[in-house]
Automatic annotation (TrEMBL):
This protein's record includes keyword Repeat: no
Site (Important for catalytic activity): 218
Taxonomy of the source species: Bacteria, Pseudomonadati, Pseudomonadota, Alphaproteobacteria, Hyphomicrobiales
Any one Gene Ontology molecular-function term assigned to this protein's record: DNA binding
Species whose genome carries this gene: Mesorhizobium hungaricum
Keyword Lyase tagged: no
Record protein name field: Exodeoxyribonuclease III
Active-site residues from the entry: 106, 147, 248
Amino acid sequence: MKIATFNVNGVNGRLSVLLRWLAQTQPDVVCLQELKSPDDRFPVREIEKAGYGAIWHGQKSWNGVAILARDITPIETRRGLPGDPDDSHSRYIEAAVGGVLIGSLYVPNGNPAPGPKFDYKLRWFARLHSYAAELLQAKVPAVLVGDFNVMPTDLDVYAPERWRDDALFRPEVREAYQRLLEQGWTDALRTLHPGERIYTFWKYFRNAFARDAGLRIDHFLLSPTLADRLIGAQVDREARSWEKASDHAPVWIEIADV
């Protein structure tokens, strides 16, 4: 099974990029973030025409997550991260596909830090810790995938010294990510590429992509039973160079069948 994640940075404005990438790569499952679209404007017809069933959790102008599955409709199991019934942000959706539980997530950015937005990010991570522990206790094949808005180590950012005070790189956020690994989750991309400088995001300005001044902020965290089946993980960098591209590149993993 090939599972991908793609922060599309506006699903309608970059629909041609998404459809082109789907046609070229044909992943089995795709997790999308930053739809920036209300539910009623999600381009379900175009995605179904491309051969994918979909579930989505949209929000006007901001956030939004979705899960696509080739030739089938994902079986939705959760909409919204538990722990705060007053949280109106569309940042988590979960489905069962092919015997795997897949959570598509978009962690808050948190800037400026310190401040209320950073506090919200840390609270969101705390809720994720609690729910991730429940998933591990259930001992089901599970993956938490998407834009975590954190560079876990110095290897994941082109110029660490410039990012020390940023909400994506502050020690509190890196520690929050590390606690997920300590729970028993496996960082798929880093496991298969332990020493490589691999990026998934490049800003639009200052020629960042051409200079390869990037960040690794899109991650796959695998439960132990799924980590044993990991056989591939890569970034589709080419898609970042296309016209009207997102500032993120798609990332994918491959899981062996049982």
